[in-house]
């Protein structure tokens, strides 16, 4: 017998306002054609002025709880991945905790930018395996529209807002790769690459700041690091790329997604792709893709999934799980 963290519910929320690429043609020297061919993005959702990250996160959490047939009373912990929390403190996670009416347990945020959901999932798994929680809500939620420089065409066309959530539950497995639940994780970061992707402001520098990215430099790291972390996590579970039913990648750029799948030896038929509809929603993109992938009928119980992400830090990692 072995303890496993099994996904028992999934849900997502996207803000109402949908912004097509053509909107940016009005204010920037860019085209729908450039954005589509270079990134794969066709549209993205932007939060309303009075809508915050914890609002999106709460709606995604409610959808995941409903999908699991559970209530907030059944949850022991909330781990929320975000780089765009409502306030400097308290955490967005505790705001969601209050909004769900959850008066016990604990809640905290994880910040690993676009790799945030993979880091949150790995931490939630550790909480379950160490017996500190039986059921954990793992949320990725972002309002990256709040940190865009709307005059910088090389970044502002790429990002969107949204939230996704999973409910993880402690269950017994056999200790083999045939078990449902999280089978292995791999986390990495290398702070020497800070200048490739960062926000040029923050509390300690007394400003909010805007996202700055050397996109082509990040691109150079992405395919190689994503393939390696996915293969490392798979080998820890005693599995190979050929065993994977679905790659559920961080949705930053269709060319990175295609390049990683190719390097892993898998066709695009085995990849859940949502980047065309959501843009890059940072820590929200993987739980959004898991939820949409299930809704589309792509992801089914028993499927072997590898999620992988890279972002600011650089920070990157992968989680292997059986749905
Ligand atoms: N419209 C038109 N032209 C543009 C635009 C635009 N919106 N943006 C940039 N360009 C121009 C550039 O100015 C450049 O022109 P130049 O050759 O005259 O200098 C040209 O297009 C090529 O620019 P590149 O940056 O080399 O284009 P590239 O093919 O690399 O695509 C992109 C850019 C889409 C940003 C890509 O590099 C990418 O996706 N990078 C990775 C992003 C990523 O994965 N980030 C990590 C996660 S995000 C996070 O952690 C928060």
The strand line-up of the biggest sheet is 1-7-6-4-5
Mean pLDDT across every amino acid position: 97
**What is the share of helical residues?**
25-40%
CATH class of the largest domain: Alpha Beta
Principal-axis shape equals globular
Structural class: alpha/beta
Can you summarize the main beta sheet? 5 strands, mixed
**Fourth-tier CATH superfamily name of the largest domain:** Thiolase/Chalcone synthase
Bound small-molecule species? acetyl coenzyme *A
| Beta-strand content estimate | 25-35%
Please tell me the CATH architecture of the largest domain by its name.
Answer: 3-Layer(aba) Sandwich
Q: What is the element string, with H for helices and E for strands?
A: EEHHEHEHEHEHEEEEHEHHHEE
Distance between the termini: 19 Å
Which parts are unreliable, with pLDDT below 50 for 5 consecutive residues or more?
none
* Rg calculated over all Cα atoms: 18 Å
- Helix run count: 10
Report on this structure.
Helix content is 31%, strand content 27%. It is an alpha/beta fold and 323 residues long. The protein folds into two domains: 172 residues, 3-Layer(aba) Sandwich (Peroxisomal Thiolase, Chain A, domain 1); 142 residues, Peroxisomal Thiolase, Chain A, domain 1 (3-Layer(aba) Sandwich), CATH 3.40.47.10. The strands form four sheets. Strands 1-7-6-4-5 form a five-stranded mixed beta sheet, with helices on both faces. The chain has a four-stranded mixed beta sheet with strand order 8-13-12-11, with helices on both faces. Helix 4 links the parallel strand 4 and strand 5. The radius of gyration is 18 Å and the shape is globular. Acetyl coenzyme *A binds next to helix 2, helix 6, helix 7 and strand 12.
């Amino acid at each position: 017998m072995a303890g496993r963290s099994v996904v028992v519910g999934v849900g997502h929320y996207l803000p109402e306002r949908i912004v097509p690429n053509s909107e940016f043609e009005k204010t920037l020297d860019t085209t729908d054609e450039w954005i589509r061919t270079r990134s794969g993005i066709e549209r993205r959702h932007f939060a309303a002025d009075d809508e915050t990250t914890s609002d999106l996160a709460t709606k995604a959490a409610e959808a995941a709880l409903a999908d699991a047939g559970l209530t907030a009373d059944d949850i022991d912990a909330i781990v929320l991945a975000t780089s765009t929390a409502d306030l400097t403190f308290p955490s967005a996670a505790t705001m969601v905790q209050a909004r769900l009416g959850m008066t016990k347990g604990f809640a905290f945020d994880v910040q690993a930018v676009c790799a945030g959901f993979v880091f949150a999932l790995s931490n939630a798994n550790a909480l379950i395996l160490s017996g500190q929680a039986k059921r954990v809500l793992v949320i990725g939620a972002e309002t990256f529209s709040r940190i865009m420089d709307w005059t910088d065409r090389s970044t502002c066309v790429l990002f969107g807002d949204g939230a996704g959530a999973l409910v993880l539950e402690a269950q017994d497995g056999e200790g083999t790769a045939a078990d449902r639940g999280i089978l292995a994780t791999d986390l990495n970061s290398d702070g020497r690459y800070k200048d490739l992707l960062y926000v040029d402001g923050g509390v300690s520098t007394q400003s909010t700041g805007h996202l700055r990215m050397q996109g082509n430099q990040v691109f150079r790291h992405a395919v190689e690091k994503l393939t390696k972390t996915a293969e490392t996590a798979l080998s820890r579970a005693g599995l190979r790329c050929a065993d994977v039913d679905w790659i559920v990648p961080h949705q930053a750029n269709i060319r990175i997604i295609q390049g990683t799948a190719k390097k892993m030896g898998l066709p695009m038929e085995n990849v859940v792709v949502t980047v065309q509809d959501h843009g890059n929603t940072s820590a929200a993109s993987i739980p959004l893709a898991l939820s949409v992938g299930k809704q589309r009928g792509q992801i089914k119980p028993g499927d072997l999934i590898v999620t992988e992400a890279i972002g600011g830090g650089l920070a990157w990692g992968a989680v292997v799980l059986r749905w």
